[in-house]
Amino acid sequence: MAFPWRKPPSVGCGLALLDGLIWLRMPLPFALDHVNLWLMESGQAWALVDTGISDQKTREAWRAVFSEVMGGRPLERLVVSHFHPDHMGLAAWLERQFGVSMETPRMEWLYGRMLSEDKSQDIVHCSVRFYRAAGFDDDLLAMVAQRGNAYGARVKHIPVFCRCLNEGDLLLLGGRRWSVMLGEGHTPAHACLWCAEEKILISGDQILPSISPNISVWPSEPDGNPLAAFMASLVRFRALPDDCLVLPSHGLPFRGLHHRIDQLLAHHEERLAMTAEAARQPVTAYQLLRILFDRPLDNHQLFFAQGESLAHLHCLMGRGEITRETDAKGVHHFRRR
Questions:
Q1: What is the chain's alpha carbon radius of gyration, rounded to the nearest angstrom?
Q2: Which of 96, 174, 290, 325 is deepest in the core (most CB within 10 A)?
Q3: Residue 312: inside a domain, yes or no?
Q4: For residue 120, what pLDDT is reported?
């Protein structure tokens, strides 16, 4: 893999990669401490891919971008790759600033809208049941109940309307023609943008250069098989040219798409083999977590790791390699056939 730009832009600044295409980086309050955004010059206005998270530090960074990078010219297009808070979190705020409508796949908009607006206790009850089935003990379940709707706590509002993107839609952004490619696994319908003329892929979280995107089973779809969907999506993206420029949401822009896809597929096959080995004896998803992630995890990372463990178990179930049984307490136990 090759990394044409080794130093990212500072927060609130922009780095011009190509004519009319600017790399922005916004802060995140997590171990993964940044998200990349892509600003494109469109005549006397701008187009943007993704927004950053909804917090004061990011809004302050955006105000610097408005004046120092955008030169006071308005934002006229806002494309959002998926519903996660670091990508869609400031969509409503930017909508209010510029009167711009969000463009995103329908499923991503609906997920974000649903999670941001749900104030009921149903999410708590559903989550406690889900993590009890995964093998969480009473102390962890108390944390789940206190955590409540973690998405709604970070994202207070998602726009009430949007322009819904579909596979194959053509967008004219920054003087370039981009085709929408939808990926699965990380989220239900993650939008990537492909510019065939210049061989540029805005990959979002679907393909990252140095970490694997989180592929998780969540309480909202407790029997889902996102890993199988993710791996199938990677095979489709491998049809793109290997030497294209990939612009990811985390890490550095890179070339070497096929090598990275092969690495990601091999990584998950290795994890699937570890999962199958662990399931020689009955194992819960939480017990598997401690095998797959043998390092300290903060509370934020714990839920992603638990979702990943379930994703690998469900993938093997989908392949017919393991079975699942539920005990009297509602805990799921997985075992090889």
A1: 20
A2: 174
A3: no
A4: 84
Structure tokens at 282: 């009955």
Query: Distance (Å, rounded) from C-alpha 314 to C-alpha 182?
Result: 22
Q: What angle do CA 324, 330, 333 make, to 5 degrees?
A: 30
Question: 53 by DSSP, 3-state: which?
Answer: coil
List the CATH number of the domain containing 67: 3.60.15.10
Which residue(s) pair with 47 in the sheet? 40, 77
- Residue 46 phi, psi (nearest 5): -135, 155
Q: To the nearest whole number, what is the mean pLDDT of the chain?
A: 97
Q: pTM above 0.70?
A: yes
Tell me how far apart the alpha carbons of residues 185 and 265 are, in angstroms, rounded to a whole number: 13
- Asked if 183 contacts 190 with a C-beta cutoff of 8 angstroms, the reply is yes
C-alpha to C-alpha distance for 145 and 128, rounded to whole angstroms: 6
CA-to-CA distance for 176 and 197, rounded, in angstroms? 8
Residue 161 belongs to a domain: yes
> Tell me: the pLDDT tens digits for 161-178?
999 999 999 999 999 999
Give the integer Cα–Cα distance in Å for 301 and 92: 27
User: Exposed, middle or buried by CB within 10 Å (0-12, 13-18, 19+), for 165?
Assistant: buried
In 3D, which of 264, 153, 160, 277 has the Cα closest to residue 215? 264
